[in-house]
Every structure is written in C-alpha cells, then in structure tokens.
Amino acid sequence: MATLKQVAAHAEVSVQTVSNALNAPHRLRADTLERVNRSIELLNYRPNRNARSLRTSAVELIGYCVPSWPNQTHLVMDQFLHALCAAAERTGRHILLFTAPGGVDGMPTYDDLHARRMVDGFVLSQTETHDPRHGWLKEQGIPFVSFGRVWKETTQPGPWVDVDGAAGSAMAVRHLYESGRRRIAFLGWPKSSGLGEDRVGGWRDACKDLGLPTTGLTVRCREDSIEEGARATARLLDAGRTVDGIVALSDILALGALRELTRRGLTPGHDVGVTGFDDSPLAEVVSPGLTSLRQPMDQIAEELITILTGSSNGSPVERLLRPELVIRGSSAPG
Amino acid sequence: MATLKQVAAHAEVSVQTVSNALNAPHRLRADTLERVNRSIELLNYRPNRNARSLRTSAVELIGYCVPSWPNQTHLVMDQFLHALCAAAERTGRHILLFTAPGGVDGMPTYDDLHARRMVDGFVLSQTETHDPRHGWLKEQGIPFVSFGRVWKETTQPGPWVDVDGAAGSAMAVRHLYESGRRRIAFLGWPKSSGLGEDRVGGWRDACKDLGLPTTGLTVRCREDSIEEGARATARLLDAGRTVDGIVALSDILALGALRELTRRGLTPGHDVGVTGFDDSPLAEVVSPGLTSLRQPMDQIAEELITILTGSSNGSPVERLLRPELVIRGSSAPG
DNA sequence: CTGAAAGCGCTTACAG
DNA sequence: CTGAAAGCGCTTACAG
C-alpha cells in the first residue's frame, strides 16, 4: 500500500503538498496538481482513513442500532437501511451497525461507541412513547437524529424526521371517498401507541371534513397480525352496518381485512376498498395488490443525514414528510 | 476525553503500562494492575479506536453490502443483519454497511474500502450463479467469506457458509409423508437458479427414496410472488391428479398455494399439507400458520465471523448447515 | 504556492 | 515487571 510519503517522493514534492492536492486542490499550482495527481494515480494511492480520523477526530461513520427482530416485523427495514446507506455515502460517510439493549439500558453502548471514536453520531429509529434515548443522548452531547418523534412529549429533545401518519390516513380516506365509498372504517392499534393515535386521528378528521360517519367504525387490534386484521374486519361486518371502505393502520392488518372479505364472498376493491400503510413488499405481491401509503425512504434518509451532519446551529430541526399513496387493486373504484 | 497519557499520569505509571493493563494484563503486578484499573475507571477512559487501528492496521470492522431491495424481497434480511452484528460484536468487531453496484462493477467499491483501511474484510451474500465477486476478491487478497455458494462452479474460490436446501426439501417431504401424504408436489423457480435446483433436487431424491411419484408434480414459477404461487397450484390441481402435499421453494410461493387451496374450498393442513422456505415473518402471521424451513441465522452468522476472523490456515473452509423445520398449521396431519 | 515541524493517541519491540 | 523511544499515516497551523 502506497503512503502519502511515497507519493510525495514520486511526485518530488512534500507530503503536505500531496495532502493539499487531495483536500484543498485550489491551493496548488495547476502543473503541480497535475503532477501529484499522476503520481497518485500511478501508485494507486488511497489515503488511510484511520490516520485521517486520528488527526481530525472525525470518523465519518454513523451508528445505527439494528432493531432486534422478534419485537416487531419490520418489513421495510431493508429499504430504510439501503436508503440511509446511500444517503450517507453521498456525503462520504458510512453506516456502522450495532446491537444494544432496548431503552435506557442500551445507552452505555451508544456512549461507548462514541467515546472510542468509532462513530460521530447516531441515527435512531423505532422511537417509542417517552423514548428515553433522546434525552440521554442530548444530555451527553452526543450528536443524533431520530427517524420518528418521541410520542406524548411536548418538547422534543433532539432533531427528528418523521412521516405524517395523520396526513396519510386522510389521503387514504379521501381516495376512498373519491371512488364512491361513504362508510369508511379504521383498523388500528391500542391507544398506547403514539403512531397509532396519529394515524387514527387523520382518519377521524378526514371523515368529519367529508361529512362521513365515524362512530362504531374504529376497531383496535391487539397485535399486528393478519389474523387480528381478519378478526377485526369480521367484527365490523358482523355489527350489521354497511362498510364500503377500510383504512388499515398497517399492511399486515390490511391483509387480514382482504382475507376476511374474500372469505365472505366480497370482492376487495369492488365491494369494499382497502388501504394499508408503509407499502411493504407484501402490498405488491398479494392479489389484488394492496393500496398503501409509501414512506418516502430516500427523502427520509437524505434529511436524516443532512440534519445529523449539518451545522446544528441553534434549535433542533423537525421535518414532517408526507407519505405517498400507491394505488392498487384493493381500492379500485367500486 | 481522557487519553492514555492522562491515565498514566493519574496512576503514576508510564503510558505503555496502561496499554498493557488493557491488552496484556498478565504482564502487570497485581497491585499495579489494580491501581491502573482504578484510574481508568475514575477517568472513564475509553481507548481511541482510530489510534489503535492506525498502529495495528486492523479496524475490527467487517463490510457488508446492503442488497438493493427492488431486486428481490429479502424478508429475512433484518434477521440476518441482527445475527451478523451480534456475532461480530462477540469478537469485538462491528459491521460497516455500504452500497455497491451488482456483480463485478461493484468491485472497485470493495477494493476502495479495503485499501483505505475502513474494513478488514467482507461478508458476502446474495450469491449468484457464476458470481464474479468471489474470484475477484480472492485475486486481490482481500479477506472475505460468503453466505451462499457460488452456484455451478466446481471449485469455490473462497470460504463459504450455506444452508443445505436439498436437505431442507427432503425434511419437508418426509414430514408430509409421515402425516400421510403420498402425492407431494414441488413449486419451484426456473432452472437457471442454483438455489432452486438445490431445493428441487432434495424434493426429488426424498420422493424417490420413499417410493413417491414425482412426474408431473413440479411446477416452475417465473417469479417469486403470491400470484405465481397460486397460479402454479391451480395448474397442478387442474391437471386432474390428486395432490395432497406441496413443498414450495419460498414462503411467498407457499402463500400463493394456501390462497388457491382456500379459494377452491380445500383446507390447507387438512386436505393438502403445505410447506415453505426461510421461515419469514409471514409464516407466523398467516392463518393457518405456514410450516417452513428456518435458516439457522445465529449459527450462520457465528460461522461466518469465525471463518472470516480466524486464521485462514490453508484451504478454504466450507460449512453446510441444516435448516430446521418449523411445523405450523399448514401441514397439520390430514 | 510550497515545505519543515509538531502532533493526533495509541502499540510494539526493546532495554533495563 | 516497568519505562524511554520510535512510529503507524495522516492534517494542521505556520513560516518562507
């Protein structure tokens, strides 16, 4: 492996001239620059990142804790990671993956990675209600940005990027309304979920705006499974009232709705319009395809990296992005 | 941030005694060690990893290229990443994520990361037929290990860990046989897929061993979707012959089989036993639950890290692991 | 515009 | 068992 010194010797300049050629090329005379660049090329020189990091005390690495998977089926995590990686690379950075216990118990791991200078900062996700990580990191002065707000907190400890779940639900409602649906139900989660309350709120507001009924049209599922989605749908239909639209809080619940409708001889998309959330790989692969709200992953990732690596001059940055409605057969005009 | 020097001053020893306390504690007298450790604790000292890496030229970081997701729905990637991370951490290492173009076009990216000393080596996955990456990395002398063999190659360029797909299919066949099934079909992929041929081979061999028929019982699906799985199942059933068991090459195809069976008024598990592959989150979440072959992720990750970081003394290491049959309702005794 | 010097925070022989 | 010295490969002021 060639070093700066060897390149310098080959180009007959000093080491810092080579360093400047790399980091501040405008400081060199054109002919010197070209000569140095030729030597770099010829010797196939690549700067040693560890030496650089030691000197500058910046590693250009961003820590991300891989969620432990038994917790929750995170069907879009690979999309998120890919987008995050790509966004980081556009700024010359990379993602360092690590595992840590949940909640505040994981904080020593974060602290350690930062103290050893293995990462410059962190991207958080899987934010929970009253998530303690944000406050802790802020207190330690460790740079971070969160994908997801800290729910049920009036002031957010740090910068975040999130997707507007309420706006998403409202988009789904309006879409179903436009295809003629007038009794649109909501399949949700327990009230303890901040994300769940955000999404159900959007559904309720949109229905009221459009003069649609909401009473008796919400079912809260205990867990995020196809089975629960089907059961909830059955409960709705058994209540005797007509339902011609279902906005589900997740693709998984929506899949349950599709199954129950089919089982009863109803045609999803024709008799009842159904929408899901997150546009997971499943949405495309079922039949009829599931209309779903796509999280703008590339934009999310871009914003996260920009905020984390940008000059944090002043107050925390907060970015609420709109999801995109991807229309498929499950909500075809009735 | 405290440095070695400060700890040394505090403990009234030299810096290399502190270094030894950390890296070769047996060299210190017990009382010196304790004194040094107290200072380390007190000053909350954490060694700077970049300084260490510069000196030892080992970064304790393993590169993994995040697959670009439109390619293939990789439903168990988060499980894999979590297991890989955990295994790496058990040896004091971490995973560095990056993106790269597919095939040989991505090789400069690998080379660059290694040349800049940002990673010590790579874990590869998503191996393809005649995958050029293995040969390239080996030629450059860049350490790597592959999750997945290079298909249709007589000699493997480097070390690998893989799951025995043939054995998996055979396990599924025998399981269905034991619950009374006698006409067991296989839903597969095109012949161009090495992984597909591995799995269909295991099905064929097991059927022959058990004296079961195989002719007319294989359907090759063009893509890995629920729709294709359902269509293939329809073709099988329309052929007029009885089918009482279906071994599907993937969970997605198996889901298609379940749907088509249900559509025809057949009860999966009761009338026809169905199995999938990979035990993705879906398997647990559908109803009836899908019997599937779980890849032993923790063991896979452990072996990958051991091979990559171990002394590669001599010939490439090859490890073929058995999947585990997770039995659920879709294959309940008929 | 270019170069001699110092130093980032460690570890590795080696001498005592 | 402990310490003085050298050096890993860069970058950062600073002088010329």
TrEMBL record, chains A, B:
It holds the Pfam family LacI. It comes from the Bacteria. InterPro entries: HTH_LacI (IPR000843), LacI/GalR-like_sensor (IPR046335), Lambda_DNA-bd_dom_sf (IPR010982), Peripla_BP_I (IPR028082). The keyword Translocase does not apply. Keywords: DNA-binding, Transcription, Transcription regulation. Residues 2-56 form the HTH lacI-type domain. Gene3D superfamilies: 3.40.50.2300, lambda repressor-like DNA-binding domains (1.10.260.40). SUPFAM superfamilies: lambda repressor-like DNA-binding domains, Periplasmic binding protein-like I. The keyword Transcription regulation applies. This is LacI family transcriptional regulator. It comes from Kribbella pratensis.
